[in-house]
Amino acid sequence: WFGIAVATADGRTYEVGDTAQPFTIQSVSKPFTYGIALQDRGRDAVLPKIGMEPTGDAFNSISLSQQSGAPLNPMINAGAIAACGLVLGDSGDAQFERILEVFSEYAGRPLTVDETVFQSECTTGHRNRAIGHMVRNFGIIEDDPEPVLQTYFRQCSISVTCRDLSVMAATLAAGGVNPQTGKRVL
Predict the structure, then answer these.
(1) What is the dihedral of CA 141, 99, 14, 11, to 10 degrees?
(2) SS3 assignment, position 71
């Protein structure tokens, strides 16, 4: 499949090709969840646990601060896993429901999880489990990392389209207001 969708900050959308074909969001989810963590916990609570330093490393690298053990930024898996743990909710399920609700507000429509991909992530996510336990070792995740990892695997398995991602990006470009629904998301 091939499709291009562009949504503008004033609410217009331009599409060509297979823009309605669903696929899983995977690592594109990271900045959106980081935004939720910042909104829920505040900058002063998030920055000691997730840095903002560029690494130049692969998305699944183990890049942690030598001083604090904190992930160097939210765009590597360690930082994204830590961000999931900072989303408000009294359980991993509640944290994921918050993520799915906010992602849906970004996209302007209800989003769902591709359960087949989620199950695959759970079965094969050994490196991410190791990262989650390592981040727990440094106190970045304060409790059992398994619910946080399940949240992360589900987050990456959210099904989106090119059009959804263009509206999500336009929402960021419009200062956190979805330009098609008018709803403040961030």
Answers:
(1) -110
(2) strand
In angstroms, rounded to a whole number, what is the distance separating the alpha carbons of residues 82 and 77?
8
Alpha carbon distances (Å) from 178 to 10, 74, 161, 168, 184: 9, 23, 16, 8, 6
d(CA 125, CA 150): 10
Q: How far apart are CA 153 and CA 157, in angstroms?
A: 6
Number of H helices, E strands in the chain: 8, 5
Q: Which residues of 105-137 are buried (b: 16+ CB within 10 A; e: fewer)?
A: bbbbeebebbeebbeebeeebeebeebbebbbe
Q: Please report how the helices 145-156 and 92-107 are oriented relative to each other, as an axis angle in degrees rounded to 10.
A: 20
pTM exceeding 0.90: yes
Helix (H) or strand (E) holding 6: strand 3-7
What is the rounded distance in angstroms from the CA atom of residue 184 to the CA atom of residue 174?
10
Task: Write the pLDDT tens digit of every residue in 118-177.
Answer: 999 999 999 999 999 999 999 999 999 999 999 999 999 999 999 999 999 999 999 999
As a whole number of angstroms, the distance between CA 54 and CA 73 comes to 7
